[in-house]
Design brief:
This protein is α+β, with helices and mostly antiparallel strands. The strands form seven sheets. The protein has a five-stranded mixed sheet. Strands 2-9-6-7 form a four-stranded antiparallel sheet. Helix 5 runs antiparallel to helix 11. The longest helix is centred in the middle third of the chain and has 45 residues. 27% of the residues are buried. The N terminus is likely disordered.
Length: 449
Amino acid sequence: MARGKKKEELTLEEKLERALVPVEEQPYEVPENWCFFRFTSLIDIEGGTQPPKSQFVEEPMDGYVRLVQIRDFASDKYVVYVPDTKKLRKFNKDDVMIARYGASIGRICTGLEGAYNVALAKTIFSREVLNRDYVYWMLQSETFQYPLRTISRSAQAGFNKKDLSNFLLPLPPLAEQQRIVDRIESLFAKLDEAKEKVQFVRNCCDDNFSSVVHEALTGNLTEEWRVQNGLSRDGWKKSKLGNLGSLERGRSKHRPRNDSRLFGGSYPFIQTGDVAEADVYIEKHKQTLSEFGLAQSRMFSKGTLCITIAANIGDVAILSYDCCFPDSVVGFTPCKDVESKYIYYMMSELQKEIEANAPATAQKNINLKILNDIDIIIPSVIEQREIIAILDDLYDKKRQVKEKTEQIVDAIDMMKKSILTKAFRGELGTNNPEEESAIKLLKKILVET
């Protein structure tokens, strides 16, 4: 029977040479008692396992364990469980996890536990040389994220252990690592508090706008205007949406829907996502139809109010140009004395109610009958225009608040990135130059391995 190869034994000097980065190769200058190490010399990664989807269940059961996936980094909405077998690789709340593939590559997570799939990697390192929270923040900094973004091993970006072998990371003394963590978390807490206040202002603005739209629905918004113009509320009436104009589903008769012959021409084609993303008016589209596609669809006119009835239910937007759309979108063309934009504002206010009343199916949706039967309270066309003018002005102010708050949030996020960059360059003012060099700590660990 052939014997396996004897494990390579290295001297301390050889181990140091493999782990340390010479000064001339270091990507930037750090304090004298810091050093740079090669990622895989101190940090190992372990990929997960991929149970078949046929084993997934949505409720916890005896003998099952949670399977953590990339999507779980952001939400607990779609938690799944799988049979607890010896083949599974697991982690606990103290482990630092890295997303390995796709658009989420490089996302860092901690605080979860269970089994994990192949799209994630668990980091393994000695806590005697690396502080867990230091690693957590360092992996989120550009020191790690920038070289990670340059990896493209296939059509779907990803990485394995070999890819990380040449990543160069800074190593301060252990006490300095904790000071860096404390400073980052203190500064981030203040920035998060500022972000919460900004979001509160934006939420108040949204709530105020909704309140004004509600006042418009009841006729209270224009009470004073009616007095000034010698009008009464007698002109208000309740009507079914279907009686205020025509409702027609979009068309996309051909199957399969993704037939390449349908697309690539000059005819604009929007879908539910385009309606949801629009700001009152639909002014851009991601897809176009060919002549073949147009022949099995229908072109709706500029000014048509679009209402989604599947996926994101009840979203509304107005076409700013002639356009086609599928049967998951309904086009509303108003009667003579009905303004599309008035209906837009009313439907925006009713969106949550419409979505809540959608039949509970595998994919919630509504139909033309539900839309036709929606009650709309509507005044004369002249009062509709007055309401539109008031709401347009308020909506512009709301948009300005939104833009300003987004700018502030972006600035806060940039400040966080800047703090992380400075932290791992030794520029947060926390370093004590009299502390023992990180190289001595590294030697101690390498002697024991």
